[in-house]
Description:
By secondary structure, the chain is of the alpha+beta class. The protein has helices spanning 3-18, 28-34, 50-59, 94-102, 129-135, 144-150, 153-165, 171-180, 191-202, 207-217, 220-223, 226-229, 244-258, 263-270, 293-307, 312-324, 337-347, 351-360, 367-396, 403-410, 420-428; strands at 23-26, 41-46, 66-70, 73-78, 81-87, 112-114, 123-124, 137-138, 168-169, 281-282, 288-289.
Amino acid sequence: MESNLLQLLKNIGESFFKEGQKIYIVGEAVRDDFLNKQTKNYELLTTANTDTLLKVISSLATLHLTKEVINNTAQFNLNGHNFIIKSSPKIFSKNDLYTELGTNQFTINSIARSLSPEDFWELIDPYNGIKDIENKIIKTVFDPEFVFKENPNLIISCIKYSIILDFTIEEKTFNAIKKLQPHINIQNLDKKILRNELLEILSQNTPSKGIITFLNTGWLFKILPELELLKQYPEEENKNFKDTFSHTLKVIDNCAMLYPNNGLFVLSALLHDIGKTECVRVNDKKKLVFYNHENVGFKISYGICKRIGLNYEERKYITNLIKNHMRLHQYDESWTDSAVRRIIRQMGNYYEDLILLSKADITGTNIKKAFLRKKKIENFQKRAEELIKKDKEKESLTLPVDGNDIMNILHIIPTKKGGGPLVGIILNNK
């Protein structure tokens, strides 16, 4: 852990110690320190009551503190580090502390370090979490079947930890996840948690690994049943993929490479061919075709995004990319400037992401065909950038006066045949 952060933690520990209270750093921050990984939030646990907690936080104001207090929890930022402090005044003994740590559910998160001056940085590990970290094992503190029945959201969290840490789910825990899958209603999952966990999984460098892990637990098609139908249809143009689902896995990995750490963008790729399941036809050449699948996918994906807890702007982003993901593959040099400008205008802030998604969608082994498809997108991109630059230059040349100003200065009377219209024509051809 960085020396400046350790000093901050010492300052916090000393402030609570002066009030006769203990404080610990717990959970993921301790785990990630062992793994040499960066942590977004630092969770702290103190024996202080709410009043003392507020008093200590106020005394730390010289450390550029901003605070928000809700019930027994205070959230604040110290020098760019986010902290969450939970007040647990009922901790009187080590056993009480162990019980509190056990509420983190997974052994690798049920660990802590003391921040008090008397035993600063002492490790507290009642459930052998460090051993599981070393062995790269995910398991629950208590009986997994009981834990998951009580809180089904922990199933998704367990799968997420396995994916982002590249750990193996312990056999008993894994079997409980599979056993409970048919008996848990997806509606009982917290949408906010589901959204956050899915996007974190898809933000990994190789998101296909996460999707395969999800698939092996039996929960992928529980949450996204529409994806299962993609396994029924072969990729006619891409013989290296046995089905559209396999093609989709390649596309999401391409997306992660082109736009790292953006789970929302990768989710659009995961769903980009979802409309094929309702558009499959056999053409005159006895080949499967999926005409209009992008528009059908637009409608299906909206329902999926709403179901998994995405907000309006996120749904709009994903559905627009899906609706338009075939447009650039249809580009031809004969297109007018207006047609190119129309795509730029309609996509707005999503334009650059559409370019990336279109490139990621090229997965075939036919080198010549893949080259031509890529070249087509690059030609569109080049032309679009030229038009964007040209339009910006034109805007910069806008005159500080308009036709009305000229007419008022020269006392020109507006008429249908001249006057105003003629002045406008002259100005627009400056």
